UniProtKB/TrEMBL annotation:
GO molecular function, one term: branched-chain amino acid transmembrane transporter activity
GO cellular component terms attached to this protein's record: plasma membrane
Protein's recorded name: Branched-chain amino acid ABC transporter permease
Lineage: Bacteria, Pseudomonadati, Pseudomonadota, Alphaproteobacteria, Hyphomicrobiales
Signal peptide start-end: none
Length: 336
């Protein structure tokens, strides 16, 4: 008698669109040579876009894959900025070393703050992250060496240590921003394709089910929280190098560093790598069209976000996937 052994069903990834990959590659090359075809104003706009894209990828990693809805990510933007200023001004750390050093210090601080935040669940976690950010904002406003409530500017001599030539400084900062945006995408893609990515996907689909098959849900969530803090701090350090001035209100602004980032992720597509890319493009397009509308501009953003969630809560990219059959540019999902 012969026993037949059932074979495991084949595992497949999402459908990869060669056309969209070609478009993405062409856009990447075009952006890599942007200093050749755009001026200083265009480069500064692109630097802002890359910075917001990096922040959006980190928030999407938190909310889209671990269910950690944070409204306090501005805490790590501000910490990264202030630690960068402190390292560059008071310890004379070279600027290109101070940026990653500030990010590492931000990640270290995120460990105890994360321990506090993880004592809270659901909506209480979201509120807790905002409270933590406010504590940091008020604390920085009390430090006189860092300018107190009025803030502090980066001395010209320190800025010129990056390069004596202004155009060369702009070029260096542009490629730092370009690297931040591209590496944020590559890092999240690499993470999601690894064994950690399988755990994150399982947590996103069902945390109890993930735990039942051996995934250490809380440990994975905490790891992602600290990693997101590191990269957000890295981005925050660069943002305030570009601005050359930092104040508590600007560094820990919930509108600038969390509300806009949430909008980008929601309209682009929560729980996908492509979503924040689309969301960033749509955000800057909307800002270009409606920036002169005053408060109507913010109301329009809110209305668009609500409309997108009503039509498809997975955002624009989710709607495209539904219509075109699991379309993907950077596939991470596995299906039987």
């Amino acid at each position: 008698m012969t026993l037949s052994v059932p074979t495991a069903p084949p595992v497949s990834r999402d459908f990869v669109s060669p056309g969209l990959r070609t478009v993405l590659a062409a856009a990447l090359v075009l952006l890599a040579v942007a200093p050749l075809w755009t001026g200083p104003a265009g480069m500064r706009l692109l630097m802002e876009a890359f910075s917001l894209l990096a922040l959006a990828q980190m928030w999407n990693l938190l909310a889209g894959y671990t269910g950690l809805i944070s409204v306090g990510q501005q805490a790590f933007v501000g910490l990264g900025g202030y630690l960068f200023f402190a390292l560059a001004m008071f310890l004379n750390v070279p600027l290109l070393v101070a940026i990653p050093a500030a990010a590492i210090a931000t990640a270290v601080i995120a460990v105890p703050t994360g321990w506090v935040a993880f004592r809270l669940k659901g909506a209480y976690f979201a509120i807790g992250t905002w409270v933590i950010a406010e504590v940091f904002r008020l604390s920085m406003a009390q430090i006189g060496a860092l300018g107190g409530g009025s803030g502090i500017s980066l001395p010209v001599a320190i800025v010129r240590s990056l390069s004596a030539d202004r155009f060369a400084r702009e070029m260096i900062m542009y490629y730092i921003a370009f690297g931040l945006g591209v590496v944020s995408i590559a890092a999240v893609w690499g993470l999601l394709r690894s064994r950690w990515g399988l755990a994150l996907t399982a947590i996103r689909d069902s945390a109890p089910a993930a735990e039942s098959v051996g995934v250490r849900v809380e440990a994975v969530k905490f790891m992602v929280y600290v990693f997101a803090a590191f990269y957000t701090g890295l981005t925050g350090a660069f943002i305030f190098l570009q601005k050359l001035r930092i104040t508590p209100d600007a560094a820990f602004s919930v509108n600038e560093w969390t509300a806009f980032v949430i909008f980008i992720v929601v309209i682009g597509g929560l729980g996908s790598i492509e979503g924040p890319i689309i969301g960033t493009v749509l955000f800057f397009l909307l800002r270009w069209i409606a920036a002169d509308w005053g408060t109507w501009y913010l109301m329009a953003m809110g209305a668009i976000a609500i409309a997108v969630m009503i039509v498809n809560r997975r955002g624009v990219w989710g709607a495209l996937q539904s219509a075109l059959g699991n379309l993907s540019v950077l596939p991470v999902s596995r299906r039987l």
